[in-house]
């Protein structure tokens, strides 16, 4: 049961991260970093470490893995620890694969991201149509911004992004409506790597349990 819950949690975490690949007309220092990052970056590969804290700031889980993106709507988000999970989007469908359970959940792209901040990726609206963007200033040489959903029904209170002063995305913080906070640290980030043409395709294993939603 816990592992299944962890998979569902991973599904909306990947959606949140897609925020950083979506264009928008915004202002302020850290948000300008975001705009420059988007303008200059078509593909990305990176490692990530993720920490989930409950509402009492107790460590619930740590995980890590790799991610790759090709703007605007192709991605591979691979959890390597503590459970092996793959989330792959090809622009039409999103595949969630739990390796241990040998279970695949497939959703239409627009449906998969429709209830999260990543919905702005699928449409033509600017970021500020869905979020209030706030420049939080510089702390320890990291430029921070906060995105607060304008939709009162959103499952998230805020998303914070931290950029180095040379424009490299390094941190993300997410707070949900249950008081849980997820911290992500990005490392070994490479801008515009050459990725294989079929890199964002996914074929479920023959013996996997496939669920379409």
What is the topology?
Blueprint: H1 2-17, H2 29-40, E1 43-53, E2 59-70, E3 74-81, E4 85-90, E5 93-98, E6 103-108, H3 109-113, H4 119-122, H5 127-130, E7 131-139, E8 142-149, E9 156-164, E10 169-176, E11 181-191, E12 209-212
Parallel strand pairs: 6-12
Antiparallel strand pairs: 1-2, 1-11, 2-3, 3-4, 4-5, 5-6, 7-8, 8-9, 9-10, 10-11
Helix content: 10-25%
The CATH superfamily appears as: Lipoprotein localisation LolA/LolB/LppX
Shape: globular
From the helix content, strand content and strand pairing, which structural class follows?
A: alpha+beta
| Number of E strands | 12
Question: In percent terms, what proportion of residues is strand?
Answer: over 45%
Kindly report how far apart the N and C termini lie. Answer: 20 Å
CATH fold name, please?
A: outer membrane lipoprotein receptor (LolB), chain A
The number of helical segments is 5
Provide the gyration radius in Å: 16 Å
| Spatial strand arrangement across the major sheet | 7-8-9-10-11-1-2-3-4-5-6-12
Mind explaining what this structure looks like?
- This protein is α+β, with helices and mostly antiparallel strands and 213 residues long.
- The chain has helices at residues 2-17, 29-40, 109-113, 119-122, 127-130; strands spanning 43-53, 59-70, 74-81, 85-90, 93-98, 103-108, 131-139, 142-149, 156-164, 169-176, 181-191, 209-212.
- Strands 7-8-9-10-11-1-2-3-4-5-6-12 form a 12-stranded mixed sheet.
- A hairpin with a 3-residue loop joins strand 2 and strand 3 (74-81).
- The protein is globular and about 50 Å long.
């Amino acid at each position: 049961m816990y592992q299944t819950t962890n998979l569902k949690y991973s599904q909306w975490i990947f959606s949140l991260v897609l925020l950083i690949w979506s264009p928008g007309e915004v202002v302020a220092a850290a948000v300008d970093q975001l705009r420059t990052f988007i303008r200059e970056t078509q593909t990305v590969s990176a490692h990530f470490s993720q920490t989930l804290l409950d509402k009492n700031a107790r460590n619930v889980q740590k995980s890590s893995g790799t991610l790759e993106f090709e703007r605007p709507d192709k991605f591979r988000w691979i959890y390597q620890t503590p459970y092996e999970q793959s989330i792959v989007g090809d622009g039409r469908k999103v595949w969630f694969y739990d390796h241990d359970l040998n279970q695949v959940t497939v959703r239409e792209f627009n449906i998969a991201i429709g209830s999260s901040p990543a919905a702005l990726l699928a449409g033509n609206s600017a970021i500020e149509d869905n979020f209030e963007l706030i420049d939080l200033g510089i702390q320890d040489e990291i430029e921070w911004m906060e995105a607060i959903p304008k939709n009162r029904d959103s499952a998230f209170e805020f998303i914070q992004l931290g950029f180095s002063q040379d424009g490299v995305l390094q941190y993300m913080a997410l707070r949900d409506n249950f008081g849980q906070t997820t911290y992500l640290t990005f490392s070994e980030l490479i801008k515009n790597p050459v990725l294989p043409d079929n890199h964002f395709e996914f074929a479920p294993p023959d013996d996997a349990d496939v669920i379409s939603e």
